[in-house]
Amino acid sequence: MAARASGVVPASAVVAAVPVAVLVLDAEHRVVEGNAAAASLLGRRAPAGLSGRHVCAVLSGCRRGAACPHPSCPAANGQLDAGRRTVVGTGTGRRARTLTAHSAALGAGVRLLTLRDRGAERAEARRDLLAMVVHDLRSPLTVVMSHADLLASGGEDFDSATRSEMAADILSSVLRLDRLINDLAVIGDADAGMLALDDVPIDLAAALRTTLSDDPAAPGLATALEGLPPVRGDLRAAGRALAGLVRNARNAVAGAAEPRLSARSDARWVTVTVSDDGPALPEPERAAALEPFGRLSGGRRSRRVTSLSAVVARVLAEAMGGTVGASDGVAGDGCAFWLRLPRA
Hints:
alpha+beta; Beta-Lactamase; Helix Hairpins; Heat Shock Protein 90; 5-stranded antiparallel beta sheet
């Protein structure tokens, strides 16, 4: 059992709180503790057989542990570092499986490694994607159908201002449906390796303003990005990724408040953070929430529903050599999604 240290979450508390297969690792890649789900996934009879062993021995039966010279060793090449997500193989013969492993920091070198069977994960993820599409389609379709029915059956009973307002609602909903279809196309193209983007210096403030040209809040949001160094990428894709994170934040608070944008840069990267005051997203769920086929269904796993726009933002960012991630909001309130792109 791991001793409590400054900034360290007790391993037993974490293992007990997470329903999926997890291993707690120390700084030397040794397993501190594992739960029953991890033991079952790895073909062990009990969690006690996991503790004290090097993670590679637990995952694949490798006996070299920290001394392994093989370039594909996940412990040796940094694939299991905090914040990383990787695919590992485990077992042999009929017991062979491919697992998705996501590592998250718990403090003072201790990490939580979440394991999922890749085949089962992708099947479940596709069901979740379908649920997401149905969820995102329902609202705009309801507006279009109800308003169109009212105008068709009794449009002459409404004054011109009301008819114009209803027509504007229909147009807004149709545009939302069009955006959803385009988002699905981006995910499909990326999955098929057919996503072709420019690789040129771009201004992120200009990219956001261009994408949200019809949004009255765009100038204020883009102000936080003024003066940033240019990044390398595709102007349209970068703008779409930023706009996707803005829409995701708005969705989390049901449009009750505007998200807060902040930005920073270093020698290699430019990072833009979009924060909101919506429900938090627990650490073990963050990586799955941004997977192209891994969206979380809000009621079953978390109070927060991550929109398709955030998933598309990650797909586009990775196609430009960057990434999208999530963290706690300011002072632990809400959630913050960040976009990181390489400097030009």
